[in-house]
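To illustrate the input format used throughout this study, we show a single complete record. The first block contains the structure-token representation of the backbone; no residue identities are included at this stage. The design step must infer an amino acid for every position from geometry alone.
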């Protein structure tokens, strides 16, 4: 699998390789304009994709799915398969939930003993790491779902802002209603988790 020849000019209404574009895209060129301008894949992207198949991150480790199944992921704009990904199912979700529950119930675990201030610093650190690799992440998002590169960059920037916003919560969880991340929105800060949900939604931002 050699992706070095790929560039963003392939993302047009006339793909360079045979593939079927959604009818909505065929009938509405504005959905896929402008073309991406030539921007070769970054070396960091190629390095990330060189390790196949991509695994699940559970309990602080990259692991294969419990069922051992793998699926292929193609670039929707060109039909080119660029990754093989381990498939997760209910058993993998349960394994992740069990590990999280064990950590939550262990009073000796570093996360349980961490102060709100230190938790805030960690979340800001995560935002720093995303921001430092924003160009690489944007290319991966575009490869994965075919959206314009400018939209992927905006998605990454939005994720950075989201993490920085929520980084302030650990020191302010007092049951108060505060202004939200978006205009005309509000957030209720309370010290309890609502639910654990495992889903893959086409309408959900990948980096978020």
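Output of the design step:
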């Amino acid at each position: 699998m050699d992706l070095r020849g790929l560039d963003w000019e392939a993302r047009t209404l006339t793909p360079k390789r045979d593939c079927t574009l959604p009818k909505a895209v065929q009938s509405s060129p504005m959905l896929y304009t402008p073309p991406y301008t030539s921007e070769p894949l970054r070396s960091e992207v190629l390095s990330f994709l060189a390790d196949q198949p991509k695994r699940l991150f559970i309990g602080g480790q990259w692991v294969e799915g419990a069922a051992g199944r793998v699926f292929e992921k193609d670039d929707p704009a060109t039909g080119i398969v660029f990754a093989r990904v381990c498939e997760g199912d209910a058993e993998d979700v349960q394994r992740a939930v069990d590990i999280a529950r064990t950590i939550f119930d262990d009073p000796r675990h570093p996360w349980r003993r961490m102060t709100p201030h230190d938790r805030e610093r960690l979340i800001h650190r995560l935002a720093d790491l995303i921001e430092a690799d924003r160009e690489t992440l944007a290319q991966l998002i575009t490869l994965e779902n075919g959206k314009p590169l400018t939209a992927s960059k905006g998605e990454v920037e939005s994720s950075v802002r989201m993490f920085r916003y929520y980084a302030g919560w650990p020191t302010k969880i007092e049951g108060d209603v505060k202004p939200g991340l978006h205009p005309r929105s509000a957030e209720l800060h309370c010290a309890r988790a609502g639910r654990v949900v495992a889903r893959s939604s086409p309408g959900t931002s990948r980096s978020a």
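Structural context for interpreting the output: Residues 136 and 166 are 23 Å apart (CA to CA). The domain at 115-208 is CATH 3.40.605.10 (Aldehyde Dehydrogenase; Chain A, domain 1).
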